[in-house]
Amino acid sequence: MIRVLIADDQALLRGSFHVLVDSSDDCRTVGEAGTGAEAVRLAGESKPDVVLMDIRMPELDGIEATRQICGDPALAEVRVLILSTFGLDEYVYASLRAGASGFLVKDTPPAELLRGIRVVAGGEALLSPSVTQRLIAEFARRPQPERPIPRRLDGVTDREREVLTLVGRGMSNSEIADHLALSLATVKTHVGRILAKLDVRDRAQLVIVAYETGLVTVGT
């Protein structure tokens, strides 16, 4: 059973998400938060598998709440799925940088939202090509640093860097396997090793690393 914490400042939306989550056979709601601070507190108390996190909330916004939850070693197994509205593309990068495992718009069909919860709970990143394009657009708007933001890649092999680069370009494991003429199992092994070596939570964070280290640049 996937345990879900719902964080949104609108009671009507919280109630709607609550009903949707509890209508599934494999998910149940373990709490509701109306503020970012309450989301952080309830996450610490209930340790849900997934937090459905709104961005615009009082006390703490969803990005800062996500940063606090994902930065707490005691909540290492908690995954955050950001829910927002169409007009907030500028928050995609900040959300993923804060540690979120995915980003969905609030008018996502119910079945897709439940699928997203399952994907994130399973340890994968909900990072669609459209979200990757938003990340690229965000980097394009930002001044490019003279050198990549430091991050240790010394222990990452040449093949793993190649895989990391393709992840940063938004490719799925199957697409990477086809591109590099590798088996899907081999690609999954490489991705798992990269996650461990870089000490990051999931695929969404790998995209950030690929850009920040200069493996992927705008226009490539």
UniProtKB/TrEMBL annotation:
Family matches, as Gene3D superfamilies: 3.40.50.2300
SMART domains associated with the record: HTH_LUXR (SM00421), REC (SM00448)
A Gene Ontology molecular function term of the record: DNA binding
CDD domains found in the cross-reference section: LuxR_C_like, REC_NarL-like
Chain ranges of the Response regulatory domain: 3-121
Domain HTH luxR-type: residue ranges: 149-214
One BP term from GO: regulation of DNA-templated transcription
PANTHER family: TRANSCRIPTIONAL REGULATORY PROTEIN NARL-RELATED (PTHR43214:SF24), TWO-COMPONENT RESPONSE REGULATOR (PTHR43214)
Protein name in UniProt: LuxR family transcriptional regulator
Organism: Actinoplanes awajinensis subsp. mycoplanecinus
Domain of life of the native organism: Bacteria
Residues with the 4-aspartylphosphate modification: D54
Keyword field: DNA-binding, Phosphoprotein, Transcription, Transcription regulation
InterPro entries to which the protein is assigned, alphabetical: CheY-like_superfamily, NreC/VraR/RcsB-like_REC, Sig_transdc_resp-reg_C-effctor, Sig_transdc_resp-reg_receiver, Tscrpt_reg_LuxR_C, WalR-like
